[in-house]
Amino acid sequence: MTFKSFIFGLLASFGLPWLAVVVFPFSKMRTLEPVKFEEGDRKGQAYSPMRDGRVNEGSKIYGQEGCYHCHTQLIRPTYAGPDVHRDEWAGLRLSADNPDTRRETVPTDYDGEDVAHIGLSRVGPDLSNLGRRLDHYLKGRDPTPETWLYLHLYSPRTNPGYVENDQEIHSHSTCPSKSGLFRQVPAILAGGQALPLYNVKGVAVVPTDRARALVSYLASLKKDTLGAPLPKAYNLNPIAPTKE
Amino acid sequence: MAETTSNADSVDVDLRVAIDRSLRHPVMFFFLSGAVWLALSVVLGLIASAKKHAPDFLSGFSFLDAGKVDAAHMSTLTYGWGAQAAFGMLIWLMARLSRKECTASGIILVAGHIWNAAVAYGVLCIMGSGSLGPWFESSGIAGMEFPGGVWVVLLVSFIMISIWSLVQFQVRDAGHVYVSQWYLLAAMLWLPWIMATAWLFVFVFDGSPLMATGIASWFKGTVFALFFLPVALASAYYLAPKVTGRPVCSYNIALFGFWSLAVIGPWVGMQKLAGAPIPQFLPAAGAAAMVMILIPALSVGVNILRTVQGHGKVVALSPSMRFTAFGIVLFVVYGVLSFGLNNNIGLKVSQFSYAGYGMDILGLHGVFSLCAFGAIYFIVPRITRREWLSRRFIRWHFFLSLYGLASIVICAVVGGFFQGQGTEDLTQPFLTGARRAAAYGWGITLAWCFLLLANLFFCLHLLLMAARLGRRSSHPTLLDKHHVESPHGPEGEVDNYGSAIV
Amino acid sequence: MDHARDNPLKRFAAFWIAALLIASFAIACVIVRPMTHGDVNTVYDMKAEARLALVSEARATQEAALDTAALEKAITEPSDNLHKQVPTPGSKPLVAPAPAETPKGEEKPDPAE
Predict the structure, then answer these.
(1) Contact criterion met (CB below 8 Å) for B452 and B396
(2) How far apart are CA C60 and CA C58, in angstroms?
(3) Global pTM?
(4) Class of domain B11-466
(5) Which of A116, A167, B185, B464 could anchor a disulfide with B209, C-beta 3.0 to 4.6 Å?
(6) Interface of C with B (CB under 8 A)
């Protein structure tokens, strides 16, 4: 083998996957045609669900805090995994108050973020619909989703669960206590931001701006069909059951 | 092996000594700073693993938060230890194989320092995100946690380190080209290609967030398959014939193994995104490539192990060969596990479990690092002109590494498989998988304890050699338990390479 | 050392060949840059289509419903009348003429005075 033939071989064996795995998919994915609704009252409109909150900033902080090491944000199609059926990762189950809103992840789910935090492992649950679960279970109850999230980030193991009676699960949580995202201030200066915690008298725990952005992002994680039905082309689900 | 001037061609010996002398500063620098980074990365690995089952461990320090410490651990292991060990091996091996002295030691040394500074800055960014101000923020991208600018600095300093070896190869004397040289050449070209592509597509070009994640994952996979693996294999293909005195079993199988890696390697990485809303062929190709890694693994394994076949005693006695042989065995193990974890059935279960981490560690710490230790135990005596001080340190390093790696394989890879099964099994609550993870997590933490001890011995031994406290002897330090006399031969016998060289 | 293969000129050439090879894929990335750069706003454009269609439909309907002749008459007639009926000091206040009948017919209750 000569140097020349070696170089040609190397260029070819690297160049083909470079084109096929990096260049063409990258170019294609950035110009994805938005999918249009084919029927119903949104006929002809593009599927573009809106997200509420500091998505871009919060996503960056989510990455910097390393949450993707233990949490995923991917509901895989059924040929790749059973995530759609696991608990309420993919959306809400059919109940008296809401239809079955579960669905698999679609490409627009990561719009607004620089990087899709698909995640490396599931030490903790999938977070694709964290915001949805919090909204649903905390409706009408005392902590708002944001407050619950602040409490979870500050002290995961003492945080009461959001589903009734699941405190036991949360006391086993191995989520780290991100106390670096909070500051301790004299209680009189805390304004309305103090977390509802038992603390040293006269001292309150308030979130920093980083915590606020992160919590805003986490509360915006609603990747299901509630309020944002899927167009036919994206809907790989079988028809949802109408009886519980 | 001892090279006595009475038997070898003295011109040849002089040339070898001159090559070693020209490279001594950069190579020792890379090995030493690599060893220090290794110790740090093992400590970080220990902390990261402990936090997964004992989350209140060291929770008062926000720079050691789980998540940040995981990223810091992998980054220091890969770019602090792995890369620098590879650089030391690469420049020495290419110089010796091309029989050319190094004329750019000063530049390489400067580039090495720049590499160290860039990695240190990158790690500070990872651990200090949010608490050290806007100049210290990590990118938050899995697999490429260093901020964007750091990658450019790393790429440029790598080019400053490796281009001289490319030149040495091109001006070598006419004659046989060794297998190791093809592997080293390829590694020196693949790494800049991968780094430039990944940096441009993830940090510079504007695209879909899914492809940013995908390409970062591709980068992580190909850095192992197309840089660390070729350098490790180059070292194995150099040491096996050198130490045993036999030629490589089959040059043709060696070329086949190389080209199979070249064809399969660039496709790996995207299997970590299986099920994501990206073109389906991407994770499928990644998984297929990981399954087929078994082909080069078997080719190299068969070739090298048959080269040393029948010389079991030499392998057992020589520190370099012990580490290298086990590194190659672990490469075959890696290939088999990769086959099992990345096929359709295995991938569903192992995708989001500890198994991925276990494979990363098996590859980087098992295959690459063991081959690197083998190379270091061979190279350092030649460039410092002193022999290793202690058989025991080497033996403890070896056995503790093996215990640690075996624990990682069992707990992270196999355990991860069961953890994944628990999570994916819908008849079990999520807590089942989480509890299994915590149990296996203890095993992984224990493995890191073994590896920490192993590397403390290694680091200490290397520091003593760097301080020129090794024994002056023409007898190499062999792991011979049965000789009562000194490993360095009868007392009073000093090295006799030649009086011209100090 | 074989001076036919290893001399400063050969080393110079080897250096630049190596540099070119190393940079080959970075150059390739720059070449494919047009495929990977540039503004992409397809969703925004699609939504803009719908939005602009709605706006132009509303404007067209309003244009069509605007009867300029009647509007002109409704403004100038009372103002002419008012102009003719200049009040004299001490006389009773003027009574405005009844407004024209609206096409809908449904009478809204007068707001309380």
Answers:
(1) no
(2) 5
(3) 0.90
(4) mainly alpha
(5) A116
(6) 1-2, 5-6, 10-11, 14-15, 17-19, 21-26, 29, 33, 36-37
